[in-house]
Amino acid sequence: MDKTLRITTPSDFEFAMTRQFDAPRRFVFDAMTKPEYVVRWLGCEQLTMPVCQIDLRVGGAYRFVFRSSDGVEHTLTGTYREVVRPERLAFGETFAMPGFTSDEYLVTSTFVEEGGTTTLTTTIRHPTKEARDGHLDSGIDKGVEPAYDRLAEVVAEMA
Q1: What are 76-88's pLDDT values in tens digits?
Q2: What letter would DSSP give residue 40?
Q3: Residue by residue, what is the 3-state secondary structure of 97-122?
Q4: For residue 143, how many other CB atoms are within 10 A of its CB?
Q5: 22 in helix, strand or coil?
């Protein structure tokens, strides 16, 4: 099983992150959509997540607030556009922190299960190549890789 995070650029506006998890896709899907699981793995280890709101339905919204030890907050918000449990999830997302708010980008996650292993591919589509490159250059791999390691621990406990 390939537990390494792979990041590719399928187009000038997109990048995709792929990793396998040793768990059925319903566990991975639930871990990504239920607040009691999301607070355990999403974000950086140095940040707390005092707000984790999820209304998982087409047109429903989510809001995640991360807080640093000095009180600085970073917020992810968005609206679900497609919810096909446990196969596919698509939503718009905006990132905000003091002095910066991103344009909305589209996040699409697919969950493919084979032999009890789930391959999660999350594709992020930005409105411009510059926005995509800026997101890629932000060090996202350094944040996502340990988060996905924590996600693997969460789904392992669900078995």
Answers
A1: 999 999 999 999 9
A2: H
A3: ECCEECCCEEEEEEEEEECCEEEEEE
A4: 15
A5: coil
Distance CA 30, CA 158 (A): 10
Are the beta carbons of 55 and 77 closer than 8 angstroms? no
The b/e string for 53-90 (b: 16+ C-beta within 10 A; e otherwise) is: ebebeeeeebebbbbeeeeeebebbbebeebeebeebb
Are residues 124 and 143 in contact, defined by beta-carbon separation less than 8 angstroms? no
pTM of this prediction exceeds 0.90: yes
CA–CA gap between residue 131 and residue 80 (Å, rounded): 21
Contacts of 148 (CB under 8 A, 6+ apart): 5, 19, 41
Distances (CA, A) of 61 to 54, 90, 128, 154: 6, 12, 24, 23
- Cα–Cα distances (Å) from 68 to 8, 58, 74, 85, 157, in that order, read 30, 31, 8, 33, 27
For the chain, the residue count is 159
Closest by CA to 15, choosing from 24, 23, 6, is 6
- Which helix (H) or strand (E) is 84 found in, with range? strand 73-84
The per-residue pLDDT for 120 is 98
